[in-house]
Specification:
- By secondary structure, the protein is mostly helical.
- It has one domain: Orthogonal Bundle (Helix Hairpins), CATH 1.10.287.3510.
- The chain has 3 helices and no strands.
């Protein structure tokens, strides 16, 4: 059986990669992928802690499924916005997304 610490370290590593991507990427699609990495790190923790400390009803896994569903919906909305802005501006760089400025 794999110890809980291994899952936490893996989740921390994936979370750090996601945060680094959110803070440094100028490309909108890479930004969305980095947000997905952060949410997947949270899912790893939810499932791992449910396995080791949770009740047998699998509440952590149910929360992880909700997070996956919400992340999928957010990704779809984000990609639709990126495609719409790309059609207007011909760029996917976040610096060029100044549509709300007067």
């Amino acid at each position: 059986m794999i110890p809980l610490g291994h899952f936490v370290i893996l989740s921390m590593f994936i979370f750090c990669i996601g945060v680094f991507g959110v803070l440094t990427q100028r490309n909108a699609i890479r930004f969305l992928i980095s947000v997905e990495l952060i949410l997947n790190a949270a899912n790893i923790n939810l499932v791992a802690f449910n396995k080791y400390y949770g009740s047998p009803d699998g509440l952590g896994q149910i929360f992880a499924l909700f997070v996956i569903a919400i992340a999928a919906a957010a990704s779809v909305v984000g990609l639709v916005l990126v495609i719409a802005i790309y059609r207007l501006r011909k760029s996917v760089f976040i610096d060029d997304f100044n549509l709300l400025k007067w």
